[in-house]
Amino acid sequence: MLNDLVTRLTLPGLPEWTGLVALLILLLLAVCLLVMPFSVFGLKGRLDSIEAQLDDLRAELRVMIARQSEPRRDGRDATPNIPEPYAPPAPQGRAEPRISWPRQP
After folding, report:
1. Model pTM greater than 0.70?
2. Is residue 40 situated within a structural domain?
């Protein structure tokens, strides 16, 4: 029976085992297509929970922005003092590196 299957699956011009390998590859692809929807079901629940967390974060940000835009009762400005980004000082003199090797005693 296995010999009949191998001879039927043999591709012309190729060794006898290539037809069996092609059949196994096709069966593996068919199994992957059957199993794929089940992996998607688990993903949907996780995506829904992440979306709910994002909605909560957006709501918190809206509340924080609304609090920040309200004028303060004590008369001070509501915006915090945000420092400027750090900028390294500009080089003075030559910009090329100085080589101090080899050292002379």
Report:
1. no
2. yes
